[in-house]
Every structure is written in structure tokens, then in C-alpha cells.
Design a protein that fits this description.
The complex is a heterotrimer of chains A (100), B (871) and C (550).
Chain A: H1 3-23, H2 27-52, H3 59-87
Helix pairs in contact in A: 1-2, 2-3
Chain B: E1 3-5, E2 13-15, H1 19-22, H2 26-41, H3 50-79, E3 82-83, E4 90-92, E5 95-96, H4 97-106, H5 119-133, E6 140-142, E7 144-153, E8 156-164, H6 166-189, H7 196-214, H8 219-237, H9 244-274, H10 281-289, H11 295-312, H12 321-324, H13 330-339, H14 344-351, H15 353-359, H16 369-385, H17 391-411, H18 415-443, H19 448-451, H20 455-458, H21 460-474, H22 480-491, H23 496-499, H24 509-534, H25 544-554, H26 562-570, H27 589-604, H28 624-629, H29 647-675, H30 679-684, H31 689-694, H32 699-732, H33 753-772, H34 775-842, H35 849-870
Parallel strand pairs in B: 2-6
Antiparallel strand pairs in B: 1-7, 3-4, 4-5, 7-8
Chain C: H1 2-25, H2 32-56, E1 66-74, E2 79-85, H3 89-109, H4 117-136, H5 140-149, H6 151-161, H7 166-194, H8 212-215, H9 225-242, H10 251-258, H11 261-286, H12 288-314, H13 319-339, H14 343-374, H15 385-388, H16 390-403, H17 410-423, H18 431-459, H19 466-469, H20 479-497, H21 500-513, H22 523-527, H23 531-549
Antiparallel strand pairs in C: 1-2
Helix pairs in contact in C: 1-2, 1-4, 2-3, 2-4, 3-4, 3-11, 3-14, 3-20, 4-5, 4-6, 5-7, 6-7, 7-9, 7-10, 9-11, 9-12, 10-11, 10-13, 11-12, 11-13, 11-14, 12-13, 12-18, 13-14, 13-17, 13-18, 14-16, 14-17, 14-20, 14-21, 16-18, 17-18, 17-20
Classes of the chains: A mainly alpha (100), B mainly alpha (871), C mainly alpha (550).
Chain lengths: 100, 871, 550
């Protein structure tokens, strides 16, 4: 077991996540991709914690992140739901209220 | 707080004392209170406030007389004193006055004049005073000065106070007297005017300002008074401001004066610093005379002040506002534009004579700026007076000419003569103006050719008084004008030129010649006015029956309340023989009595200053004016020389004047009158021009030719006025469409400017040619007049117009391109730049969340890459 | 009572209007009469306290700051709440306290669209606090805060109640002034960091200080000549925009033309004076050496402004715009006085500020009333005001006469002494240059007469044109107008007759502001030396200050 294996895994997950965020038009999939990114970070944290030896257990931060991510997904899905109710669509390309 | 200032004397002097001399401020104060009272309460008074004005000015006149009496008393006191030859102390009644005054001055903190500084200059005066007197030596009399601090700033005290000496009391008496008479006259003349109350309020304010000006103790106060009389003049010229012409004239007057005021401000500031930071008139004069002030600065200062004099006192070429100012009511013209305000410039020079005398090096020279300006003005004014149809404009040009006389006199060093002429001129010119007003009151017009003629039948009193005024102005002995004019001619140096030496301050022979020519022209144009107004046949009645009402609508006389006009039918005994409405009738007593009083004065005031040694009369009745007015032997007045009176000069000038009267008389009274009993046709018949050109032997033709001159002449006056107005406008940059080119019609050819150039000789020759009707005459008239007109329009007017137009154009250019374009443009460009940048950025904000995220990730990657590379 | 005034007088005067504005916030919009009462009441109470201050002011010590309060404020940057007035600021303070109530009274009769007295009046109250605060502040940060407080209400007054082009004008006014303020703030900070507060007698305990008392009495002496020049440049632009000096003046005609009448009056009467006050209170006393170096530029721009403003006036057909341009010319005279760096010239400038405030304020009042009646200010269409509203015509004539510098009215004592001072500037300055300026300025007086009389002729003289001949809306001066105008008219005459009323106050304060205490040579002394001697004097001062602080 090497650190690099975990880092590789997490970077693959991260890349998939980034791809999802940038490329998918479905808002739910975008949210899921964001979850992927967060989880890739979690893997990194735990791996660094395990291999480099930390004074505070790395799992604490992962737990924080999981909690915040849950809240974030809750808010995110709520937004998506509202958007869907208003527009009958969750295609992100159609949501451009911020256009200047 | 108010205290009495005794300035340190140069020569042996005594200081004038007397309650009225030291508290003369009450005179302008009374008039100022009168102004406020009339302004705020006048409308509620039974006579619209005029009663307050008359009462106030009457009291002021009495006070002025008392003040004058006290001053004369002081001069007499000085005559009774002797001078101790050892220490130069003055002994009066056995008391050492010099010592006493020194003691009084010692405790006086305001006495700023150095004790010994002027001693060097002083000895000269002493010697001079002795020489002048010829026998026993008397001390000079110093002005009574009282002052207090007005305000102070930066260590400089600005004082306010009064200074009374002979010059001041002369002006005090003149101003209050003429003002009183004008007040009385106006109650009839402007009766029923819709702004009757305002009229009297401004008369009061004017009188107050003028009195404030003449009693000024320092030059700052003079500036204040000077501008205040200007604004009153503005308000009164524009009294009937509904009419654009009147407000144009008022604006022109104010703005022309403002150009001169610029000179005044700068001149006074230069003198202030040049003479060691003092505003005091006495201080400035003393510094100038003692040689303490640099000559260059004195020259600059006096030239700046000459600009002020040119505008205020109507000197060529800033004179053009004055004829236009005739748009004001006639009493105003008499008071402001003849007798008082316009002499403010003369007074200014006389007051600061030390500055001018030294600055222009008047003594021992034969030409200087002041004398030249005065001399030119006198010629220009007199020649233009010749061609006016409007009786007031004749008098206006005549005033210009006479003011030129005074300025010339000051320029040649004839100080007393100038002031004496100011004094006499005030009476006879006010008389003439008020007489003209009386006539116009009757005929509702100022046009001599159209609406007057034969008025002596209708208005005998006006006629008689006007005749007296004319003779006085023409300068025939023994009326007032003769004496003062003769003194000025003597002052130019007289025949000194021919004898190879001068008996006065210098050999101003050119000025002598100018003065002579003017004397002749004055006599001639007054003869013309007399004829056109009072002789021949009445020409005004023809349109009176049917256009009477329209007349009322646009004439000055429109202001005459009809009911009132009827009312003074009743109290006028002379109008019994004209029954119907349109015929002129003699004016009422409130108009006639001022005329009678002024006529009396115009006859007698000349005797106040009989020349030295005249007919062997005793000394105590000769040279009274000079004795009481001229500040001899004091440190603030330069040592001027007096020319010896010369019988030959007086006789020659009288002959010249008589000749001019004779020639003019021959034309008008004999030729014109005999050839055309029907005066109306003669004057107005344009069809008669051709016979004129054919031959001039017959009287008819001569008359016709004169008519032609007049037709050409009238616009000349207007053009002259316009030209100078344009000068003003240009200098002021006021080009803004304040239209100044009325009356510049090319068809009307101006006229007697050739007289300016060639003088009385040419005038006589041309007149003779006209009489014989030769073509030469028309050639001379046509060519020369054309040339004069051309120079007038192209040289003066053209330049002025160009400058004016250029300033308007540049104003517009600066505004449009520089202000709105460059400067404002820069600002706007900055704004536009930011908004452009905004537009650019706007395209980046698509609202697409994923695009934002892309950019964010790209940025993060970039930063991460940087981090790796750097670390 | 006196002790109370000493401690609280200035603070109360300044903040009572603000308190009034806050009170008005709590009252519904509909209760117009209550708003009017509160607004007028607040300004009047402030004015009454102002009068009390006037009576309690020690005129024998007009050169010293009085009613001083010095309390801790923002300790981190050593900025303190210091207020106080001397003879220089007292007249301006009283002017402000007087003009604002008059404006409020006037506005009762003429609420501009879109009406809404609540906001309109509370903005004016906030504005007043800002203006008063600027005149009493003795701490740079405090001054800056008040200086900026003025901006916002004025922005809204113009932007909401203004004429057709109001948005452009208000934005221009705001940005222009803000731009100047930014540079000014940088200069203030530079002063803070470079000056040495321990040198001056009135010193704050630490070296870096915003205390204006310390800074104007030598604390800035240590700053090198070059740095001084830059700092002065920043202040010059900051204050110059506000004055406004040519070429920073272009916001003024737009702002004036578009502003509601009351806004124009306040703008002309008080706001412009903040700029000139900044020069005489801050820029010159802090940095006399740099002031001497900059003075020829100031003088040149001043005379350009005089002529240029006058030419601008002559090219206008809008009456209000003409009056606005005349402000540029008049403030040129004020700046000319300041540029001489003499006691006399600066006194003249302060008098000019007061006179211009009264007279131009009056002219804007009349212009506003004309607009109310005729619904136009186009001079080609106006005329015959004297026929239709004779009293107003006379008032216009009177104000025009005052504005063109007629002796006996206040305008003359602003103009003439400035010209006089220019003949003899401080020794350090080349006098030939200023004599040239003097002649140009004198020419400006002629032009002033030209454009003002021209305006008078176009609007007041003649007969009314057909379109207004029978207009029933055209009436003479109303009661509100009389109440608002009478004090101004009276003061114009009073100051015209007795200029000492102001000169007496300002003279000691100005003399003091040109002096520097606690160091060897005084700056005022250095200014009165010619050529190299002046430079050596300044260098010696720098050395002495450096030693003292070291």
C-alpha cells in the first residue's frame, strides 16, 4: 500500500467530478459530481493522515466534510427542485438569470 | 472717534477750522437718508416723495453755502496772519498758530505724514507764494480733514473721512444748487410718470453719491463715489427701460464707464503702493510733489487715471456714451450729464493734481497726454455738435467739447481756470439743458428741425433764458463763459510761443489754437440752435392734431399726465393766445424759475474771477475765485504758474467768436430766414437738393444745401456714439449681440469733422463757398466728409467692431470647443472608457454557471501550476 | 451656560440637523407639515446656537481656536474628534447656519418635482451637518469624513429633484468631486506618515498625527521639498475641483443648471467655499514652501478662470447657466487673493467667499423664482420682469449690481482687495507676474459688468413677450421668498458698508495661519523673503525641525 495509490484514486475521482461539473447539463448530475470531488478530497485527507502521521485524526475533517456536503446537497437539491418547478427543466444551460 | 487731522505742513500754513468744515459728512448723509426715505415711504406720500427730496437737497444747499462761508472765513483768517521770517511760523493775532497746531497734532495717532520729509519742497512753495502775492506774504490754508478708520486688514488702515478745501466747497455748492433746481424742475417735468417716486429716489441717491465723491478724503472713497454716481447714471438713463433703446443707452453708459473704471482701479492701486501705502489724497499728492514717488509709477498711475477720466468725463474716444445718455429724462441730463457727474473726471484730476503735474511733467513742456486728449475732445465735440438735429444731442456734444476744454486746461497747468470753467459751465449748461427740456415739454419732441422753430413767440421766458445760456456758452463778454474760457486760453501760455518764452507752465501753443477754433465753432453751433429752435416758423404743429395720442405713446412727454398738463395751463399766463390743443405753450413756473435763476447766475458768476489788474479795480474784487479756491502754498498742491492776463488774447478770442456768430447768423437768420419764410418746407424738402448742386447764388439754394448737411449730419452723431460704444463693447469683450450699429447708414454722410482738421478758417471758407453755391463746396463737403466718415466707420468703428466680433467668436469658440470639447470631453472620455470596459466585461458574464466554473477551475489549475513551478 | 457652550456648542450645532433628519425618518411621508416643522426647527435651533457662539466668541483672540473639544475617536490611527473655530471659520460657519434655514423656508413655497418633502428636507439637513462639520473639524480624518458627507445628499438633490438632464449632471458632480477627494485623501495620508507631530507645541504625543493644529504649526516642516510639492499637488486638485478652478470647473455649470433652486443656492453659497476653505485652512498653512512653488500656477489658473468664466457667461442663453459661469469668474478672484500668499490677499479671499455666497445665492434664488413663474430660463424668451414682477426685477438688479462689484455692496470688498493684493504678493513670489494677473483681473471686472447687465437687460428690462404677457402665474415676490431673501439682501448692504465686520475676524486668524510656532524661522517669515533667502530659510527650518524631533 502506497500513498500514491490513494492519491491516484482520488485524482481520478476528482477529474471525473470536474468533468461532471463542467460538462453535464443535468443539475442533479452536477450535484453528484460535486459530491465526487468532495469525496476525492476526503480520500486525500485520510491518506495523508494515515501515512504522514497527524496530531489530530484526519477522519475528523472527513466527517466535517461529509456533514457539510450533506447540507450542501440538501440546499442544492432544493434549488434544483425550485428551478424545476418554475421552468419545468433542470437543464443548466437554460438557467442564465445572472447574464449581464 | 471722529477727530480732526492736521497734516504736517510744507510751507507756513494754517489749518482750516470750523464745525461745518469738519462735519461736512452730514451733507451727503442727508441725501442718503432722503434716498432711503423716498424709496421705502415715497409712494405713500402725497407728492410721491418729491417733497422729501426737495427739502433734503434744499437743506444741503444751505449747508453747502454755510460750509463755503466758513472756508472763505478761513482764507480771510490766513490773510490776516503773518509769517515770522526766522522760523517760518505763522502768527495770527499774536498767537503762534504753527506751534499750536503741532501741539494738537502731536497727540494725534493718525497723523502719518512725516515731519521733516517735505521740508525741501516746502521752501519752494513759500517763495512761490510770496512771489505770487507780490507784496506781503500770507500763509496757505490747509484743507480741513477729518477721518476715522473704516476697516483695516493686513496692517493697512482704510480710512473714511472728509476733506474740505476750496475745490470741495466749489463742487458742494454747484452740486447742491443744480440738484435743487433740477428737483424743483422735475416735479413739473416728470409729473405723472409711472416711476415718479423712483425718479426722485435716484436723484437723491445720485446727489448723495456725488457729494460723497467730492468730499472724499482718500482715493478709495473716490472709487466708491465714482462707481456709485455711475450706477445712478445707469438707473436714470434707463429710467424708461421699457424701450430697448433706452436700456441700450444705459448699458452703454455703464459699460463704457466700466472700461475707464478699470484704469481707475489700477491707477489708484499703483498710486497707493507708489506713495508708500496710503490712500490719503493729501499723502499721495505730497509724496508725488516731494519727489518721493518714482516718476515712472506716477506716469503709469496718471495715464491709467486718464483712461478713467476719458470715460467718465466723455473725453475722446470714450465719449460716445454721453450723447446716447440723452435717452434719459432731460432733468437728469442737466444734472448728471452736464453739470455734475461728468465733471467727476475733471475733479479727480484736480484733486490729484500733484500726481498729474509731476507724472505728466506738465510744467515746462508743450504737449502731454492730458492736454492732447482734452484738446482733441474739444474739437471733436464741437464739430459733432454742429450736425445734430436733436437739441439735446447738440448740448451733449457741446458738453463733451467743454469738458475737453477743462481737461485741456488741467493738462496745460491752468488748474484754477479749469475749475472756474467747471463752475461757470455747470450753470450755463444746466440752463441750456433745462431750457431744451422746457421747449420739448411743449412740443413733445427734441427734433429741432421737425418739431421746433419760432418758439420764441410761444415761450418768451424760455427763449430769453436760453439765449443768455447760449451767449454764455459761446463765450462772449461779459457773460460767465467768457471769463473762464479766456483764463484757459491764457493758461496755455498765451502768445508766449511767438515771443519765444512762456508766461504760464509751458508753451502749449497747439492747445491755444485748438481752444480758439473750438470757441469759434461753439459760437456758430449755438447760433444754429438758436435759429432752429426759436426763430423761423413753428414746424411742429402739423401733425399734432391727429397723431397727438401716438406722440404721447412714444415720446418722453408721454409721461406727462394729461390732467396735469391741463392744470398748468391755468397757472401759465403766456398761453392765452393758443386755444387749440396742439399748439405749444410756455412751461409752468416750476420750470421757469429754475431757468431764471440759472440765467441770472450765467450772467454774473464770471465776475467772481476777474483777471489780475483788470481795469485797475482794487485787488479785493479781482481773482476772488482763485483766491479762495486755489490751494496756494500747501504741501499737497504743486507750484503752478499763472499766465499773465492779456488784453490782446481776450480781444482776439472775442473777435473770433463774434466772427463765428456773425457768419452763422448770416446763414441762418439772414440767408435761410429770408429765402424761406415757410421754414417747414425749407428744412424738410428733399426735392430741393438738386437746385442746391446747380448753383448757390440764391438764398433758397444755400438753404437747401444746409438742409442737406443736416440730413447727413444727424446720423453722424449717432455713428460717433455708436463707434465709441463699440469700442467699449470690444474692450469689454461684450460682443454679445448688444447691437451697436444703429445709425451707421452709409448714405448719410457725416460732416464737420473737417472742421476738426482744418479749423475755423476752413470752416469760414467753406461756409462762404456754400453761400455762393459753388460746386467746390459740395466737393469739399462730399469728399472730406466722406473721408471723415470713412475713417470713423472703418478705422475706429471697424476696429472696434472687429474686436467685438472677435471676442464674441472667441467666447463661443472657447465655450464650444475648448470647454465643451476638450475639457469636458476629457472628462466624458474617462467616463466612456470605464463604461466601455464594462461592456467588454459584460460579455463574460453569460449567466452560465458551468462557464464560471470552467474559468474558476482554469484559474485554480493555473495557480496550482504556478505553485509547483515556483516551489 | 458658557461652559456648556465651550464643551458642547460646536458639536450641537453640527449634529442637531442630523438629529432632525433622523427624527424625520420615523415620521410617515404623508405628514408634510410635521416634516417642515422639524426641518425648519432643527436648522433654526442650530442657528440660534450659532448666534450664541457668535456672542460668546472672544473677538480679542480671533486668531486662536475657540470652543475646542478634543476627544479620543479612532485610536488605531491616532485620529481624534477635535473641533474648534477661529476667525477664519466662524464667518463661514455662520453663513452656513444662516443660508440653510432660508433655503428651507424658500422651499416651502417651491417644492420641486417629485415633491416628497420628507426626503428632500432630510437630505438638506444631512447636507448641513456635512458642511458645518467641515468648517469646525480640526482633525484631517474628521474633516475628510464631513467633506465627503456633503457629497451624497447633494448627489441625490440633483439627481432626483433636478432638471431634465439631472442624472448626467449629478453623476458628473459626484465622480468629479470624488476623484478630487481621492487624491486629497492620499495627500492627507502622506502628511500623516511624513510629518512629525512631536515638533509642534500643540503636539499630539505621537509622531504621526492628523491633528490639524499640530500640522499647521510646524509638524510638516520635516517633509522634504519634493514630497511637499507632491502632497500639495494632491490637495490642490482635491480642493481645486471643489472651488472649482479652471480647468476643473466643468461639473459646475451642469450641476447648477440641473440642480433644484435650493440645491443651487447651497452649492453656490457654501459648497464651493469648502474648496477655498481647504486651501486657506489646510494646504497653505501645512505646506507653505510648496504653496509658494505652486502659487504662480494657482494665480494663473485663477485669472484664466476670471476671464474664461466671463466669456462663458457671455456665450450663454440660459440664465442659470450664466450665473453658474459667473461663479467660476468670482471664485477666480478668491483664488487670486489666495495665490498672493499674503495676509491681505487671503483676507480678501475669505471676504470674497462670504460675499459670493450671499450674492450668488441670491441670484440663484431669483433665477429659481423666475423659472417657477415662466417655466423657462431662456433669456431670449424672457424680458419685462420689471413690468410683471417689479419687486423681483429690482431685487435682480440689486443682486446683479452687487455681483459686478459695485462699491457699497459686499461684492466690491471681495474683488477690489484681491486685485489690490495682487499688486504686492508675498516677497517670495515674482511680483511682475502678479501685476500681470492684476491687470487681467481688472479686465475681468469690466466683463463682469458686461454679462450681468446684459442678463439684466434681457430679463428685467423691456416689455414681456407675447407668450407671457397675460400669464396669470406670473406674480411678484411671495411671503416665503421675502423671508428667505430679506436677510441676504440686508447682509449684502451691511457688509458693503462695513467690511470690517468680517475683516476684523479673519485678520488675526489668517496671520496666525501663515505663522509657524515652535521652530526657528517661521514659514510666514520665509514667505516674505526674496529669491535664495527664502529657500535657505525653508531649509533652515527643516533642519531645525529635524533636530527638534530627533
Amino acid at each position: 500500500m502506497y500513498l500514491v495509490q490513494f492519491l491516484l484514486l482520488s485524482s481520478i475521482l476528482f477529474c471525473i467530478g470536474v468533468y461532471g461539473v463542467l460538462a453535464r447539463r443535468n443539475a442533479v448530475l452536477v450535484l453528484m459530481s460535486i459530491e465526487l470531488i468532495l469525496n476525492s478530497v476526503n480520500i486525500n485527507l485520510i491518506a495523508f493522515g494515515r501515512f504522514n502521521g497527524a496530531t489530530i485524526p484526519a477522519e475528523v475533517f472527513s466527517l466535517f466534510i461529509i456533514a457539510v456536503a450533506a447540507a450542501e446537497v440538501g440546499v442544492g437539491l432544493a434549488l434544483v427542485l425550485t428551478i424545476y418547478r418554475n421552468r419545468k427543466s433542470i437543464d443548466l444551460h437554460e438557467v442564465d438569470l445572472l447574464k449581464g | 472717534m471722529s477727530f480732526f487731522l492736521a497734516a504736517e505742513a510744507g510751507g507756513p500754513t494754517i489749518t482750516a477750522e470750523g464745525w461745518f468744515l469738519e462735519n461736512v459728512y452730514i451733507i451727503p448723509l442727508i441725501m442718503a437718508i432722503s434716498f432711503a426715505t423716498i424709496l421705502f415711504f415715497g409712494k405713500r406720500m402725497p407728492r410721491g416723495g418729491s417733497e422729501v427730496g426737495i427739502a433734503a437737497v434744499g437743506v444741503c444747499f444751505l449747508l453747502a453755502l454755510i460750509t463755503a462761508g466758513q472756508w472763505i472765513g478761513q482764507v480771510n483768517r490766513a490773510d490776516s496772519c503773518t509769517i515770522n521770517p526766522e522760523d517760518q511760523h505763522v502768527i495770527c493775532d499774536g498767537i503762534d498758530v504753527t506751534e499750536a497746531e503741532k501741539a494738537a497734532a502731536a497727540g494725534d495717532p493718525v497723523s502719518t505724514f512725516g515731519d521733516g520729509e517735505f521740508a525741501a519742497g516746502a521752501t519752494g512753495f513759500t517763495a512761490f507764494a510770496a512771489e505770487e502775492d507780490g507784496e506781503k506774504q500770507h500763509p496757505g490754508v490747509k484743507a480741513a480733514v477729518s477721518q476715522r478708520t473704516w476697516w483695516s486688514n493686513g496692517g493697512i488702515d482704510f480710512t473714511v473721512g472728509t476733506m474740505v478745501d476750496g475745490l470741495t466747497v466749489t463742487l458742494l455748492v454747484v452740486v447742491t444748487l443744480i440738484s435743487s433746481l433740477v428737483h424743483i424742475y422735475s416735479t413739473d417735468y416728470v409729473a405723472g410718470d409711472r416711476r415718479y417716486t423712483h425718479f426722485f429716489a435716484f436723484l437723491s441717491l445720485f446727489t448723495a453719491a456725488m457729494l460723497f465723491f467730492v468730499t472724499s478724503e482718500n482715493t478709495l472713497q473716490m472709487i466708491v463715489g465714482w462707481e456709485l454716481v455711475g450706477v445712478c447714471s445707469f438707473a436714470l438713463i434707463g429710467h424708461w427701460w421699457e424701450d430697448q433703446d433706452n436700456s441700450d443707452a444705459a448699458l452703454k453708459a455703464f459699460l463704457t464707464n466700466r472700461v475707464g473704471d478699470m484704469g481707475l482701479l489700477i491707477g489708484m492701486i499703483v498710486l497707493f503702493f507708489a506713495s508708500g501705502e496710503t490712500w490719503s489724497i493729501i499723502g499721495i499728492n505730497e509724496a508725488a510733489i516731494s519727489g518721493e514717488t518714482s516718476h515712472t509709477l506716477l506716469l503709469i498711475g496718471s495715464l491709467c487715471l486718464i483712461a478713467a477720466v476719458m470715460s467718465k468725463s466723455g473725453q475722446f474716444f470714450l465719449h460716445t456714451w454721453l450723447p446716447d445718455a440723452m435717452a434719459g429724462p432731460t432733468p437728469v441730463s442737466a444734472l448728471i450729464h452736464a453739470a455734475t457727474m461728468v465733471v467727476a473726471g475733471i475733479y479727480l484730476v484736480a484733486r490729484l493734481y500733484g500726481v498729474f503735474f509731476e507724472g505728466l511733467s506738465i510744467s515746462g513742456s508743450s504737449l502731454n497726454a492730458l492736454a492732447l486728449v482734452g484738446g482733441l475732445t474739444t474739437l471733436v465735440g464741437a464739430s459733432l455738435a454742429f450736425v445734430q438735429d436733436d437739441i439735446k444731442k447738440v448740448l451733449a456734444y457741446s458738453t463733451i467739447s467743454q469738458l475737453g476744454y477743462m481737461a485741456m486746461a488741467l493738462g496745460v497747468g491752468a488748474w484754477t481756470a479749469a475749475i472756474f470753467h467747471l463752475f461757470t459751465h455747470a450753470f450755463f449748461k444746466a440752463l441750456l439743458f433745462l431750457g431744451a427740456g422746457s421747449v420739448s415739454h411743449a412740443v413733445h419732441s427734441f427734433d429741432m428741425k421737425k418739431d421746433m422753430g419760432g418758439m420764441r413767440k410761444f415761450m418768451p421766458t424760455t427763449y430769453k433764458t436760453f439765449l443768455i445760456g447760449s451767449i454764455a456758452l459761446a463765450g462772449l463778454p461779459p457773460l460767465a463763459g467768457f471769463w473762464s474760457k479766456d483764463e484757459i486760453l491764457v493758461g496755455t501760455g498765451g502768445w508766449g510761443f511767438f515771443e519765444g518764452e512762456s508766461h504760464a507752465n509751458g508753451a502749449y501753443t497747439v492747445m491755444l489754437i485748438m481752444g480758439m477754433i473750438t470757441a469759434a465753432m461753439t459760437a456758430a453751433y449755438m447760433t444754429r440752435v438758436m435759429y432752429l429752435t426759436f426763430f423761423g416758423e413753428f414746424r411742429g404743429g402739423h401733425h399734432d392734431d391727429h397723431v397727438h395720442d401716438e406722440d404721447h405713446a412714444h415720446d418722453e412727454a408721454a409721461e406727462v399726465d394729461h390732467a396735469h398738463a391741463v392744470a398748468h395751463h391755468d397757472d401759465d399766463s403766456h398761453d392765452d393766445h393758443h386755444g387749440h390743443h396742439g399748439e405749444p405753450h410756455e412751461s409752468g413756473p416750476r420750470i421757469l424759475w429754475p431757468l431764471r435763476i440759472l440765467a441770472f447766475l450765467a450772467v454774473v458768476v464770471g465776475f467772481l474771477n476777474l483777471p489780475k489788474g483788470f481795469l485797475g479795480l482794487p485787488k479785493s474784487i479781482l481773482q476772488r475765485f482763485e483766491h479762495f479756491v486755489e490751494p496756494v502754498g500747501v504741501s499737497y498742491f504743486p507750484g503752478i504758474s499763472h499766465g499773465d492776463p492779456s488784453w490782446s488774447l481776450a480781444i482776439v478770442s472775442t473777435i473770433v467768436v463774434s466772427l463765428a456768430v456773425g457768419v452763422a447768423y448770416r446763414y441762418y437768420f439772414v440767408t435761410v430766414n429770408r429765402q424761406s419764410p415757410a421754414a417747414t418746407e425749407m428744412v424738410n424738402g428733399p426735392t430741393e437738393r438738386f437746385p442746391l448742386l446747380k448753383a448757390g447764388h440764391t438764398m433758397l439754394k444755400n438753404r437747401y444745401y444746409l438742409d442737406h448737411i443736416y440730413d447727413g449730419g444727424e446720423p453722424v452723431g449717432a455713428a460717433g456714439a455708436t463707434a465709441v460704444a463699440t469700442i467699449f463693447g470690444a474692450a469689454a469683450g461684450l460682443a454679445l449681440g448688444f447691437s451697436l450699429d444703429n445709425g451707421l447708414d452709409q448714405d448719410f454722410v457725416p460732416s464737420l469733422i473737417w472742421g476738426v482738421v482744418l479749423g475755423v478758417t476752413v470752416f469760414t471758407i467753406v461756409s462762404l463757398a456754400l453761400r455762393t453755391g459753388v460746386g467746390v463746396a459740395s466737393f469739399v463737403k462730399g469728399r472730406l466728409a466722406w473721408a471723415a466718415n470713412w475713417s470713423h466707420e472703418h478705422l475706429i468703428d471697424g476696429t472696434v467692431d472687429t474686436i467685438g466680433e472677435t471676442s464674441v467668436k472667441s467666447a463661443n469658440f472657447v465655450y464650444r470647443y475648448i470647454d465643451q470639447g476638450v475639457i469636458d470631453g476629457t472628462v466624458n472620455a474617462a467616463g466612456a472608457g470605464s463604461s466601455g470596459a464594462g461592456d467588454e466585461l459584460r460579455r463574460w458574464s453569460t449567466g452560465q454557471v458551468q462557464q464560471y466554473a470552467t474559468v474558476m477551475f482554469a484559474g485554480a489549475t493555473l495557480l496550482a501550476g504556478l505553485l509547483i513551478i515556483v516551489i | 451656560m458658557e461652559a456648556f457652550l465651550d464643551d458642547w456648542g460646536l458639536t450641537l450645532v453640527t449634529f442637531i440637523p442630523l438629529a432632525g433628519a433622523l427624527l424625520m425618518m420615523g415620521i410617515p411621508k404623508e405628514n408634510e407639515s410635521e416634516h417642515k416643522t422639524i426641518a425648519l426647527g432643527a436648522t433654526l435651533v442650530a442657528a440660534v446656537i450659532g448666534v450664541l457662539l457668535l456672542f460668546n466668541f472672544d473677538y480679542g483672540a480671533a486668531g486662536e481656536l475657540q470652543f475646542v473639544v478634543d476627544k479620543s475617536w479612532i485610536d488605531v490611527i491616532n485620529s481624534r474628534y477635535i473641533v474648534g473655530i477661529d476667525g477664519m471659520s466662524l464667518p463661514l460657519l455662520i453663513l452656513t447656519l444662516g443660508v440653510v434655514p432660508l433655503c428651507i423656508i424658500y422651499s416651502f413655497g417651491h417644492f420641486p418635482e417629485p415633491h416628497n418633502p420628507k426626503t428632500f428636507l432630510s437630505l438638506i439637513l444631512v447636507l448641513e451637518t456635512g458642511m458645518l462639520g467641515s468648517f469646525i473639524a480640526q482633525d484631517l480624518i474628521l474633516f475628510f469624513v464631513f467633506f465627503e458627507v456633503v457629497l451624497l445628499p447633494m448627489f441625490f438633490l440633483i439627481g432626483v429633484w433636478g432638471g431634465d438632464d439631472r442624472r448626467y449632471a449629478s453623476l458628473k458632480f459626484f465622480l468629479y468631486t470624488l476623484f478630487g477627494s481621492a487624491l486629497m485623501l492620499i495627500s492627507f495620508l502622506a502628511v500623516f506618515f511624513l510629518a512629525d507631530g512631536t515638533v509642534a507645541e500643540a503636539a499630539a504625543p505621537t509622531a504621526n498625527t492628523f491633528d490639524m493644529r499640530a500640522l499647521s504649526t510646524g509638524a510638516t516642516g520635516v517633509i522634504s521639498r519634493n514630497a511637499q510639492l507632491w502632497i500639495f499637488g494632491g490637495m490642490f486638485i482635491g480642493f481645486g475641483v471643489k472651488v472649482p478652478m479652471f480647468p476643473f470647473h466643468t461639473w459646475l455649470p451642469d450641476a447648477h443648471t440641473q440642480a433644484p433652486t435650493v440645491g443651487s443656492v447651497i452649492l453656490a453659497a457654501v459648497l464651493l467655499k469648502l474648496g477655498t476653505y481647504g486651501f486657506v485652512r489646510i494646504a497653505i498653512p501645512f505646506l507653505p514652501e510648496a504653496a509658494a512653488a505652486w502659487a504662480p500656477v494657482i494665480g494663473l489658473l485663477a485669472v484664466i478662470g476670471i476671464i474664461y468664466g466671463a466669456l462663458g457667461c457671455l456665450a450663454q442663453s440660459d440664465m442659470k447657466r450664466l450665473i453658474a459661469f459667473s461663479s467660476v469668474a468670482h471664485m477666480g478672484f478668491v483664488m487670486l487673493g489666495i495665490s498672493t500668499l499674503t495676509d491681505f490677499g487671503i483676507n480678501a479671499a475669505i471676504f470674497g467667499m462670504i460675499a459670493h455666497g450671499l450674492i450668488t445665492g441670491m441670484l440663484f434664488f431669483v433665477a429659481g423664482s423666475v423659472k417657477d413663474r415662466y417655466h423657462t430660463l431662456d433669456m431670449d424668451r424672457l424680458g419685462g420682469l420689471l413690468v410683471q414682477a417689479p419687486k423681483m426685477g429690482w431685487i435682480l438688479g440689486f443682486s446683479a449690481m452687487a455681483s459686478l462689484g459695485l462699491p457699497g455692496l459686499a461684492g466690491f470688498w471681495g474683488e477690489f482687495p484681491a486685485i489690490l493684493a495682487a499688486y504686492n504678493p508675498a516677497e517670495i513670489l515674482p511680483e511682475a507676474t502678479w501685476r500681470g494677473y492684476m491687470v487681467v483681473a481688472a479686465l475681468g471686472t469690466v466683463l463682469a459688468a458686461g454679462y450681468l447687465l446684459w442678463m439684466l437687460q434681457k430679463t428685467a428690462f423691456g416689455t414681456p413677450s407675447a407668450e407671457f404677457e397675460d400669464d396669470p402665474h406670473i406674480h411678484d415676490v411671495t411671503t416665503y421668498e421675502w423671508i428667505a431673501w430679506a436677510p441676504l439682501l440686508v447682509l449684502i448692504v451691511v457688509f458693503g458698508f462695513y467690511p470690517n465686520a468680517i475683516f476684523d475676524l479673519t485678520d488675526p486668524a489668517v496671520i496666525k495661519s501663515l505663522e509657524v510656532e515652535g521652530v526657528a524661522g517661521t514659514a510666514g517669515g520665509c514667505l516674505e523673503m526674496g529669491g535664495n533667502a527664502a529657500q535657505q530659510c525653508f531649509d533652515a527650518m527643516r533642519e531645525a525641525t529635524g533636530t527638534a524631533s530627533g
